[in-house]
Amino acid sequence: MFSEHAEHGLTTMKIWDYMAGINGILLAGALLLGGLLVGVKWVTPMMGRALIVTSNIREADAIIVLGDALWDGTLSERTLRRTVFAIQLHNRGLAKHLVFSGGGGSEASLKRMRDLAIDLGVPRENTILDTESTSLKVNADSVQEIFARRNWRSALLVTSPWQMQRAVAVFSRNDLIIYEAPIIFFESFADSFREDVVLMEAVIPEYLSRAYYRWKGWM
User: Fold this and answer.
1) Closest by alpha carbon to 53, among 145, 143, 163, 142?
2) Alpha-carbon span 157 to 167, nearest angstrom
3) Alpha helices of 76-192 — where are they, by DSSP H?
4) What is the mean pLDDT of residues 136-159?
5) Who has greater pLDDT, 125 or 30?
6) Tens of pLDDT along 54-70?
7) How far apart (Å, rounded) are the C-alpha atoms in residues 82 and 66?
8) What was the pLDDT predicted at 192?
9) pLDDT(109) > 70
10) CA distance linking residue 85 with residue 21, whole number of Å
11) CB burial class (10 A; 0-12, 13-18, 19+) of residue 124?
12) 127 by DSSP, 3-state: which?
C-alpha cells in the first residue's frame, strides 16, 4: 500500500515538474517574443532616427550613387530609389556626372542603374561605373581615384539615410567634399510591422558595420 501511494506521489510530482517545465518554456518564449516586438516597434526606430542626417543638397562636381546587389535579378527597392533620386538631382542641374559605385561587387547591378539613368535622359557619356567596389571602404578609395583623374573635389552622395553618416565619414577621409543627399525610405519610422522589420534588418547591421569601421580606423 505504501509503495502504491509513493509511486502515485512520484508520478504526480513528475507531472507537475513536466508542467512547470512547459510553463517555463512558454513564459520564456512569451518574454522573448515580447522583447522582439518591443525592439522592432520602438527600439529600432529610435536607433534609426539617431542615424539620420540633414540633407545638404547643392551643386557639386559629380553625384555618387551607392548601389546594392541585384535582388532576384532586379534592382532592390532602395537601389532603385537611390538611382531615381540621383537622376532627379542631375536633371536639376546640380551635377553633370553620375558615378555609380558599389552594387555588392556586382557589375550587373551598376549596369542596371546606368541603363535606368540613360532611359530617363542622362547622356551615357555622363555616367561612370565604379566596378572595383565590394564594400563602402573600397567604394571610397576607388571613387577617390576616379575624382583625382578628373580633378573633381566635391560630390553629392546618394545613399540610404541610415548609411549616410558612415558613408560621409569614410569618403571625407579621402579629401573629398561630400554633400549629403539621403533618399527618403521610411517617411515615419514606420507605418506597418513589415516596414518595422525591414528597418530592423537595415539598422542593426549598420550599427555593427559602424563599430567595425571605427575599430579599423576607417571613420
Assistant:
1) 163
2) 8
3) 77-91, 107-119, 136-149, 161-172
4) 94
5) 125
6) 899 999 999 999 988 78
7) 7
8) 58
9) yes
10) 55
11) exposed
12) strand
At which residue does the C-alpha cell 513589415 appear? 194
Confidence of residue 1 (pLDDT cuts 50, 70, 90): very low
Residues in the chain: 219
Complete domains list, the chain, with CATH: 1-51+190-219 (no CATH), 62-180 (3.40.50.620)
- Written as nine digits, the cell of 92 is 536639376
Cell numbers linked to 175: 579629401
Whether the per-residue pLDDT at 148 is higher than 70: the answer is yes
Amino acid letter at 71? Answer: W
**Dihedral pair phi/psi, residue 142, rounded to 5°:** -70, -45
Lookup: cell for 9? 506521489
Which cell goes with 79?
537601389
> Which ranges in the chain belong to alpha helices (H)?
2-38, 44-51, 77-91, 107-119, 136-149, 161-172, 193-216
Cα 143 to chain centroid, rounded: 20
**0.70 exceeded by the pTM?**
yes
Given a cut of 50, is residue 75 above it in pLDDT? Answer: yes
Cis peptide before 117 (omega within 30 of 0): no
Residue 120 carries which side chain, given as an amino acid letter?
L
What is the distance between the alpha carbons of residues 159 and 163, in angstroms, rounded to a whole number? 7
Give just the sign of the alpha carbon dihedral 23, 28, 34, 36: negative
